[in-house]
Amino acid sequence: MSDFLENHGIIITGAASGIGRATALRCAEAGASLVLADRDIEGCNETSQLVQKLGGQAEPVEVDVANADSVQTLISHAVDTLGKIDGAFNNAGIEGQSTRRITDWDEDVFDLTMGINLKGVWLCMKYEVDQMLSQGGGGSIVNTASIAGLVGLKGGGGYTASKHGVVGLSKTAALEFSSKGVRVNTVCPGTIETPMIDRLLDDSGAESSFFVEKTPIGRLGKPQEIGDAVAWLLSDKASLVTGIALPVDGGWVA
After folding, report:
1. Which residue is catalytic, options 89, 110, 127, 159?
2. Is 159 an annotated catalytic residue?
């Protein structure tokens, strides 16, 4: 199996399930050593155990990405564990009130959504980039946005705003730090078979066929397909790629 992430120390947030877990497994298969972070430490422990069953190295850490002290502790722990940080997948996120018009969103839920989805990405990048620069520069950061970071989606105003913010923040970071060898990109998943989509279907009363019909490829995506894209962006195989927002969506945006 290809070891294109061998000798890479990588942080993954939102690693307890879904895309985060699938990406952790893909990166481990490619030879990376991992620090896995999530506020759901039980799920994070499960992901770590799955990585270890593959023969990989993974250390679970509980984190609140919207809290600066918690993120700094994560970075320090990652450096102690991995020796250095070569890459990071800032994936932690929530959907908020994804089936309400913007006039019906509760203010506290809006603040929470922006805090985790956007401020959380900013805080993680802030301390990840500082660490990468202190190592002499170089590294790759991938942030999770969404197709909702590229187009508007009815019913998810706060979520959509946060994901548009992630795309803009990532492009700005790419411009500011690419000369130092730090690449920053965004992955924009479409409708993927994850617990988040399950919750959305439950809340809306819709069937999965609703999303399938909107996806030209004719099916929902698999978390592993996002993991493949992220692992590539984290690797030296994507050495000329920075500042992009990559849709992995079966043609939805097109």
Report:
1. 159
2. yes
